[in-house]
Amino acid sequence: MTTVLIAGATGLVGGLALGLALADSRIDRVVALTRRPVETHAKLRNVVVDFSDLPADADWWNVDGVISALGTTRARTPSPDEYLAIDRDYPLAIARLTRSHGATRFALVSSLGADPRSRFAYTRRKGELESELKALAFPSLTIVRPSALDGQRESARLDERLAVAVLKSLTPVLPSPWRSSSATGMAKLLVEGAVAARPGIAVKTNADVGSCST
């Protein structure tokens, strides 16, 4: 049996990954950690949690693969401390707990330009998270680094919609890393990373996302 845990299943990419995982015949059970309940399914165990107070000994940490698609925006999370926790601390806590319970594959939504030495706070946090995950020595670690996401959010901000529109209009002249990223393509890469990724660390770029978007 293959069990996959998904954190962030109520977001755009995480929700798509959840749908793909539930439909995937290679996966017998899905554990979705969420802040609010999601639709029930025969393969799904939905655990509504407080990500700031995760229990260390819960039986649902016993999974084979993990997908971390947690994220937020400044508009939704104006508190700098809470923003940092969602972007870096919660995914790292989930990684540590699942690794200590035997998980061997971890797939992460990171960001274009992630670098622990970046002068920009957002990409620096993503780089710090990547470095911490590498230190946990998952046998298989998949890192997906998207640009602006192209997909149907429940409530997209105006600046997000404008950014995607501009990037799409410039697609013919933009280098591949800077083109808008397909949310569907990202979700497919995450599921593969959690189920069947090769040993080692794999960093997926927009070129990889694009090849999985159809």
UniProtKB/TrEMBL annotation:
Domain of life of the source: Bacteria
SUPFAM superfamilies named among the record's database cross-references: NAD(P)-binding Rossmann-fold domains (SSF51735)
Record domain NAD(P)-binding: where: 8-153
A family per Pfam: NAD_binding_10
Alphabetized InterPro entries for the sequence: NAD(P)-bd_dom, NAD(P)-bd_dom_sf
Family annotation (PANTHER family): OXIDOREDUCTASE HTATIP2
Protein name in UniProt: NAD(P)-binding domain-containing protein
Record organism: Methylobacterium hispanicum
